[in-house]
Amino acid sequence: MTTALITGATAGIGAAFARRLAADGHDVVLVARDVKRLREQATELHDRHGVEAEVLAADLSEEKGIAAVEARLSDPKQPVDMLVNNAGFGNKGRFLEVSMADELKMLTVHCEAVLRLTSAAATSMKGRRRGAVVNVASVAAFLPRGTYGASKAWVVQFTQGAARDLAGSGVRLMALCPGFVRTEFHERAGMGTDNIPGWMWLDADKLVAAALTDLERGRTLSIPDPRYKALMGVVKLAPRGLLGGVSSKAGRKYGPQ
Ligand SMILES: NC(=O)c1ccc[n+]([C@@H]2O[C@H](COP(=O)([O-])OP(=O)(O)OC[C@H]3O[C@@H](n4cnc5c(N)ncnc54)[C@H](OP(=O)(O)O)[C@@H]3O)[C@@H](O)[C@H]2O)c1
């Protein structure tokens, strides 16, 4: 039996990872802030799939929360074979409309927590010569899109660089770049989504299935779905100014502050 630790496991993409990994027979460690929701999810996964489902309540924007998950990942008595760094959020508003505290909170959750948890997991996985880390970024990593896009660009660069450094160690790392996925993300960030065409929406369960196939194939970057692969091909060729114009509108229709 192997164990997977998933951050942001209670909703959206993280919940889809937890469902799929539990269905595949992995024990799971579920990380998020809402304890009640975590407990309900753990009970459901245990009852449905017969796996051990552990709850670890932690706020990854705080030192205490990051340290608690680091400690769990470093515990030699309960090894973690797969880490999914998925917890994340969008801020409501554009640059200068978002408070500095919220900008920094995003960098802590998307970058500092990902760096520290990847390091803790990879250190212990390297000792056992096996393990995998999936860091959830976004296609926004390839677009000029404020702190969100910049933080996700960091996730991609960091993960691919670390994967290269750890090649041959038995530890695999992959950055996952979803396009628009129907989750709680946009509502939590106060973003209107009515200007996003229907064909751009992805299903979280299908996204996770494609991501795990890419991980099996040894990819260090996964952009699931042919629509987004094609779009990202166009993005590579398009002028930066044009990209900025399109990106600053799509999915960034904020409600009243
Ligand atoms: N949905 C999309 O269109 C999309 C596209 C590209 C990339 N992504 C990325 O995918 C990841 C998951 O997003 P999602 O769409 O699944 O969002 P979601 O439905 O809003 O779920 C977010 C999850 O993260 C947890 N979380 C949020 N802040 C946290 C914190 N400070 N500490 C610990 N856990 C925290 C939430 O639980 P609690 O509130 O209980 O903590 C929840 O379980 C994010 O990294 C996001 O940037 C999403």
Automatic annotation (TrEMBL):
A single MF term (Gene Ontology): oxidoreductase activity
CDD domains in the cross-refs: SDR_c (cd05233)
InterPro entries: KR_dom, NAD(P)-bd_dom_sf, SDR_fam
Signal peptide region: none
Key words of the record: Oxidoreductase
Domain of life the protein comes from: Bacteria
Protein name: Ketoreductase domain-containing protein
Native source species: Streptomyces nymphaeiformis
